[in-house]
Amino acid sequence: MTSPTPNVKNFDLNDDILDELEATLSADRLGTYLTATGGERAEAVRLYTWNTAVSAAFYGPLQALEIALRNAMNRELASVYGQTWYDSGKAGLDSGCLARVEQTKQGLRKDKYPDNAPHVIASLSFGFWVSLLGPGGYIDWKTKTKANYEMTLWRPALRRAFPHAASISRKNVHTPLNFLRTFRNRIAHHEPIFTRHLEKDYQNILEIAAWIAPHKRAWIEAHSRVPEILATPRDADNLKF
């Protein structure tokens, strides 16, 4: 017989429930929250619930930014180096990026998808796109030849992916996006994010979205639950995720 679904408004964190939740979450995972709440198990579970809720709320804005960023960067790179710009030697991608492109193609072929430009572009990770805004690593380790993304990617193409940013530099775009990359990865791996400056993370998402397309920022703000969750006490006992 299936047990009735508990009403979150009346969900009592008694010892039996806390024992079971601790076992399913693992002591190591819950330990971070116990440390933050001075060893109080009920408060730790409430904080874990809040962390889960705010992570879920950030998923939509991060997804919106990632897709906008990917499409804008791809558009400008394709306009300079062609649809398969990632295969063009003139783009000067470093060995790490070239390896990720090849791994992406292999993965597509393995899954019986074509390794054409639309599929490759859609399959490349957020980290890949952010890395294109960095300085670039080694093209050839043996000769210590380094990529120069400032000259091969940023100036001829990628600066135009942010048409609504006034006098922006490559570094000033890369830095906040790189912070958001680690933020996104923590969420994807179900890690704690409650110690981060989440208001700043949210503002970074909105600001970068506005650099690409102001209406995209407005769309994110109109639909986002992030402000609502951030305003909710972390010890709330009726929070849904």
Keywords:
mainly alpha, 241 residues, disordered N terminus, elongated, two-stranded antiparallel sheet
How would you characterize this protein structure?
- The N terminus is likely disordered.
- The protein has one domain.
- It has 11 helices and 2 strands.
- The two termini are 26 Å apart.
- A hairpin with a 4-residue loop joins β1 and β2.
- The protein has a two-stranded antiparallel sheet.
- α2 packs across α3 and α8 packs across α9.
- The protein is elongated and about 65 Å long.
- With 241 residues, it is mainly alpha-helical.
- Helices cover 61% and strands 2% of the residues.
- It comes from Donghicola tyrosinivorans.
- This is Abi-like protein.
**β-strand number:** 2
Distance between the termini: 26 Å
Provide the gyration radius in Å. 22 Å
Shape, principal axes of CA atoms: elongated
Strand content: under 5%
Mean pLDDT: 94
List the helices and strands in order: HHHHHHEEHHHHH
Instruction: Tell me the number of structural domains.
Output: 1
Tell me the structural class: mainly alpha
Largest beta-sheet characterization? 2 strands, antiparallel
Strand line-up across the major sheet: 1-2
Helix content bin:
55-70%
Summed up, the helix count is 11
Which blocks of ≥5 consecutive residues have pLDDT under 50? 1-7
Protein name: Abi-like protein
Organism: Donghicola tyrosinivorans
